[in-house]
Each structure stands twice: as structure tokens, then as C-alpha cells.
Design a protein that fits this description.
With 372 residues, the chain is of the alpha/beta class. It has 2 domains: 223 residues, TIM Barrel (Alpha-Beta Barrel), CATH 3.20.20; 124 residues, Lyase, Ornithine Decarboxylase, Chain A, domain 1, CATH 2.40.37.10. Helices cover 27% and strands 23% of the residues. It contains 11 helices and 18 strands. Strands 2-3-4-5-6-7-8-9 form an 8-stranded parallel barrel. It has a 6-stranded antiparallel barrel with strand order 10-13-16-15-14-17.
Length: 372
């Protein structure tokens, strides 16, 4: 019998969350088209599986990711709509693959323009030219952007590049409206007179009411990521506030139940000492499965439908839970670590001092996955 731990991926939740995002995008005016949606599926679809994302996001207008091999897998799985590589390409040899599989690219550095200038693709490659508006990660500086875009137009005239667009990335759309407004103003000032579509909004930018509609009324693509998987980009707004559903549920079973006396230590280092006699259980999940090692005593879990907490330090393969609120629990009882029927992944992440993004991506390959 396999070890009793499981990650369940809900395709219906993925589809539902995409619909929630799409409903946010009703045009504010008749002259403004609805933005199109690139569903971001980088990092193996935030740990949910690339091919699961292809199915769950079948109604998206496009997919955005990092890895060219994953883009090829999406095409081979039957995805025919646009695909965007968010970091573009890295070697001249990649260009033939981009052409063959009709993969669009972000162009964020002069080295990429230089490689493209030496290429002779039979079919032009669509591209978004990225402006650094303050994230200071990728993108041309404002002083260099107009020249970079002119180079891209020249490559377009040579049929090396196809359709062109302009993009940037918000640094603080989740917590600082003033900084985001500065980024939007800089982007608008630098790109308004340049032709092509626009791509700016991430999850936080998409869920912030009306933010996307402040941009020029041209073809616009948004790039939601974390919200599509049922987690929140905001510290002060849970995913449930937006009607989002968890697409990943991590659960395990109790493999031991015992009664301990007052003063008994629990786990490595006896980081938790029982203040009174109590019942504890051991669940078959540890940091080698992707559960956050630094999750402290009190991190929420759900046992047989009853919310309770972890106790002491996490082990490689096990964690200990307080069964005081769930006296009916027994060996074999289900423990929901996060997801449907349990705490939100954001609540677990907050307790552990990390982000839901990291927990999704950290679920280990040894954890069995079932798709529903």
C-alpha cells in the first residue's frame, strides 16, 4: 500500500478561477475591447502540472510560461492558441523552435535583439518588447526603450519578427497604489506613440478594480498567475473574497495516535511541551513532501473536518497535530494540510513566513497526484 499522502488537482477549480478573472474584465466603455488572457503556467503551472493547466485553462486566450520545452509540450498536447515565453529565449538555436511551434517571446535585453538580427526564420516570430518601469528585474531602461522598439520594428520589416507589443511588470500592485500608478504613467508615456498590443497586469493588477482600464484602449493582454490557482496575491484580501477556489488540495492520513501527559515533549528538540494531558496524532507529511519546514506550532490543519493545529517541529516525513479538538480521530483519519476542506494555502504560508506561491511549487515529486 502506498504511503497515505496525496495532492489532488481540480480542473474544475482551474476553469472556475479563469472565469472569475474573465468576469473582472468587462469593458468600461463601448470603445474599449475586453482584454485577452494569458494564463501563466510557469514553474510546472505553479506545481499543478503543465498538461493539467492546458486542460483547465482551455478557454484562456493564450498561455504564458518560461521554458521552451514546456511550450513545445503544450503544442504537442493540442494547444493551438498563442504561447508566450516570459523570459524570451536564451540561445540562437532556440529561434528555430520558436518558429516551428509558433511561440511568442518577451524581448527584454539587447542581446536578444542582436541574436534575432542574425536569424533568418521562414516565419516571423511575434514579440513583446519589455520596458523596465521599476521592477528592476527584466526590461529595457526607459532611456533605451524607444531605440529598442525601433530595432524591433526594423526586424519586423525584415520579417524576422511578426506582430509587436509592449509589456512591463508591476512591482507592488499588491500593496502600493502610488508606486503602481507611477509605473503605469511611465509605461504610458514611453509607449503611447508606439504601435502594438499592450501587456501589463499580473494577478494583483487584474484583481485591482479598474486598473487595467486606465491604460490606452488598444488590444491588451493580461497575465494572471497565482489567482488562477485559487490563492491570493494580497496580504489583506483572502482568495475567497474574490470567489476563487483552491485548485490544489494536499492531504495525508494519521499513521499514529497517542495520549501524552502534561510536561511531555513533542518531536525534535521538544519544541512543544504539553501543558496538560492531551491526544496527538502523526500525519504522513513532512518537509521532504514540500510542507514548509519552518511552520511553527499553531499552523492550521484540518483533521476529519475539524480545524486544529500542528505541534512542535516538522520532521522530514511526518508532522504532529493536536487532536484535542478532534477526539474522534483515529489512525487513517484524513488530515487536510491545505486546500478544499482545510486551511487555505495562504493561511499555511502566512503561518510559516512564506508565500502560497512557494508552497504550490514546492510539493515534492514523491507525492502522488490525482486529477479530478
Amino acid at each position: 500500500m502506498p504511503r497515505p499522502i496525496l495532492a489532488r488537482i481540480s480542473l474544475s477549480a482551474l476553469s472556475h478561477n479563469l472565469e472569475v478573472v474573465t468576469r473582472q474584465l468587462k469593458p468600461a466603455a463601448a470603445h474599449r475591447p475586453r482584454p485577452l488572457v494569458w494564463a501563466v503556467i510557469k514553474a510546472n503551472a505553479y506545481g499543478h502540472g503543465i498538461l493539467n493547466a492546458v486542460r483547465g485553462f482551455s478557454r484562456a486566450d493564450g498561455l504564458a510560461m518560461l521554458d521552451i520545452d514546456e511550450a513545445v509540450r503544450c503544442r504537442q498536447a493540442g494547444w493551438t492558441k498563442p504561447i508566450l515565453l516570459l523570459e524570451g529565449f536564451f540561445e540562437p538555436d532556440d529561434i528555430a523552435i520558436l518558429e516551428q511551434y509558433r511561440i511568442s517571446i518577451a524581448v527584454h535585453h539587447q542581446s536578444q535583439l542582436d541574436m534575432l538580427s542574425q536569424a533568418r526564420p521562414r516565419q516571423p516570430i511575434d514579440a513583446l518588447i519589455k520596458l523596465n518601469t521599476g521592477m528592476n528585474r527584466l526590461g529595457f531602461p526607459a532611456a533605451q526603450y524607444a531605440n529598442a522598439y525601433r530595432q524591433a520594428i526594423g526586424l519586423q520589416e525584415q520579417r524576422i519578427l511578426g506582430s509587436l507589443g509592449k509589456m512591463t511588470h508591476f512591482a507592488r500592485a499588491d500593496d502600493d497604489a502610488a508606486v503602481t500608478r507611477e509605473q503605469i504613467d511611465l509605461f504610458d508615456n514611453m509607449t503611447r506613440d508606439l504601435p502594438g498590443k499592450v501587456s501589463v497586469c499580473n494577478s494583483a493588477g487584474t484583481l485591482t478594480a479598474g486598473l487595467w482600464s486606465t491604460l490606452e484602449p488598444v488590444e491588451q493582454w493580461i497575465r494572471p498567475g497565482i489567482c488562477l490557482y485559487g490563492a491570493t496575491p494580497f496580504d489583506d484580501k483572502p482568495a475567497s473574497d474574490f470567489g476563487l477556489l483552491p485548485a490544489m488540495t494536499l492531504s495525508a492520513a494519521l499513521i499514529s495516535v497517542r495520549r501524552i501527559e502534561a510536561g511531555a515533549g513533542v518531536g525534535y528538540g521538544h519544541a512543544f511541551v504539553a501543558p496538560e494531558a492531551m491526544t496527538i496524532g502523526v500525519a504522513a507529511c513532512g518537509y521532504a513532501d514540500g510542507y514548509p519546514r519552518h511552520a511553527p506550532t499553531g499552523t492550521p490543519v484540518c483533521v476529519d473536518g475539524v480545524m486544529t493545529r500542528t505541534l512542535g517541529r516538522l520532521s522530514m516525513d511526518m508532522l504532529i497535530v493536536d487532536l484535542s479538538p478532534a477526539p474522534q480521530a483515529h489512525v487513517g483519519s484524513q488530515v487536510v494540510l491545505w486546500g478544499e476542506g482545510g486551511p487555505s494555502i495562504d493561511a499555511v504560508a502566512r503561518a510559516a513566513g512564506t508565500l502560497g506561491y512557494e508552497l504550490m511549487c514546492a510539493v515534492a515529486p514523491r507525492v502522488p497526484v490525482v486529477v479530478v
